[in-house]
């Protein structure tokens, strides 16, 4: 299936499924980072990320969850917060800034964006 066909199928499923109005649900804020570790640094980066996750589990206000996906092109880190204020607060948190200082030397390239959910179909 091509990307266009898959996108069309997802859109069709969204239209066919009952859609809950956005106002009826709390709106999460989704931070998505596309990360390319330096050559030979993938395992070291992954180890630091996992250690950070285990160290902070259940301790970050408003953090709903985190997912890390990997491919040959790099990593995609998705962090979901209850509100933009929660995400901003954590971005300034010493625990986050110190972690970034540790992992930054392992990263060749990183791009980050903040997203809001447009629609939802099923569980991810």
Q: Can you walk me through this structure?
A:
This protein is an alpha+beta fold and 124 residues long. Helices cover 39% and strands 29% of the residues. The chain is built from four helices and four strands. Helix 2 packs antiparallel against helix 4 (94-103). The longest helix is centred in the middle third of the chain and has 15 residues, at 42-56. It starts with a helix and ends in an 8-residue tail after the last strand. The relative contact order is 0.23. Mean pLDDT is 83; it is low at 1-11.
Any descriptors?
single chain; 124 residues; alpha+beta; four-stranded antiparallel sheet; 4 helices; 39% helix; globular; disordered N terminus
- Counting helices, strands and paired strands, the structural category is alpha+beta
Q: Any idea what the radius of gyration is?
A: 17 Å
H/I helix tally: 4
As a percent range, the share of strand residues is 25-35%
Instruction: Tell me the major beta sheet.
Output: 4 strands, antiparallel
Averaging pLDDT over every residue, what do you get? 83
The percentage helix is 25-40%
* Morphology: globular
How are strands sequenced across the largest beta sheet? Answer: 2-3-1-4
User: pLDDT below 50 for ≥5 consecutive residues: which ranges?
Assistant: 1-11
Overall strand count: 4
* N-to-C span: 20 Å
The run of helices and strands is HEHEEHHE
Quaternary: single chain
